[in-house]
Write a structure and sequence with these properties.
Strand content: 5-15%
Structural class: alpha/beta
Largest sheet: 5 strands, mixed
CATH superfamily of the largest domain: Thiamin diphosphate (ThDP)-binding fold, Pyr/PP domains
Bound molecules: thiamine diphosphate
Shape: elongated
Number of strands: 7
Number of domains: 2
CATH architecture of the largest domain: 3-Layer(aba) Sandwich
Strand order of the largest sheet: 4-5-3-6-7
CATH topology of the largest domain: Rossmann fold
Amino acid sequence: MHPSFATRLNLDLLEQNYERWQKDPDSLDSGWSAFFEGFELGNFDGKNGATVAVAPAEARRDLRESPLQTRIDALVYAYRILGHTIARVNPLAEKRPENPLLTLREFGFSDKDLDYRVSSKFFLDGRQMTLREMIALLDQIYASSIGAEFQHIQNTRIRDWVRHRLESRIFAPSPSPEIQVALLRSLLEAETFEVFLHTSYVGQKRFSLQGAEGLMAILDTLLHKCASDGIEEICMGMAHRGRLNVLANFLRKSLNVIFTEFTENYVPALVAGDGDVKYHLGYRTVRKLAAGEVEIRLSANPSHLEAVDPVVEGTARARQRIRGDTEHRRKVLPLLIHGDAAFAGQGIVAETLNMSQLAGYSTGGTFHIVVNNQIGFTTLPEDG
Ligand SMILES: Cc1ncc(C[n+]2csc(CCOP(=O)(O)OP(=O)(O)O)c2C)c(N)n1
């Protein structure tokens, strides 16, 4: 229906329909809906936007004075770029981080506008919703317990892929009860292991995983994905934090052996060590899963943090050659687990990343996990 149906001659009908539309926009056909949206849009500027009483930078003022649709699109875009800066990724923080560039006022809105019906052709295929709902969805996607910084990716296909993954995630069904139980089990195993060491080897130096047991759930998920995606081998490296837990619960190294190595009177043949030798040993295993077998190699680790990174990449590349996987490099996955301070501070991390794009060194992609306990000896969180 063309909006010319709406003239002063049918003012009563117009008012009735406007009331109906405000209560339930779906109760009218799309012609009326479009008309009322336009009507509200035209009315919008006088209510807010241009009258915001703060002196903003020129560019921001331009935005606030822009038409409704421009501001809605800008809001979506801003969440994609900046959502991660207000994401609740720090479980120790007392309050959620704030970013003045992501406030209603920044886009020329106020609380009064939250019930406006809006849509953006850039967000969820132009789905209609209230401004309140749109912000809640953007918040859930871009600023919940997962933050994603990805808009800098210049390859539009890759960027769109990431965006699609993030935006479709919230409509995906939650994991099956079996998976939820399996993940809970891996958290409990990790926790029980640390508690046992803590109570059985009192006073022993221990690089506990407590507080970061989520690592084990990530590794478990990754392992199952490897098996179902045809990855035959994982070459991994990590420092001391959580290493015994990974050896016990991920590589399934015998607990007997781990605990023997943990006792004070255990003298390893190879090193005149500092008591940390158990945290340096490598291991190899084959995990048998319903979807197939995956071999896992954990490289031995020196005291020098992150020095193992290029070693793991070299090992992975060699294993790819041995497995005849030099074209696509999809059978052997390098996996590096870092500490937050070491990852930020050690130049060898950047060196390893740089080498990754050279034909002679590429391994087809590495899975990096940073175990962020927010401390690194004397490095405080704000410095890290
Ligand atoms: C190259 C190098 N520099 C310094 C050290 C000394 N050192 C051992 S652990 C550590 C802190 C590491 O912090 P982080 O990476 O956050 O790991 P966390 O122990 O907190 O899990 C430092 C500086 C080292 N082992 N290697």
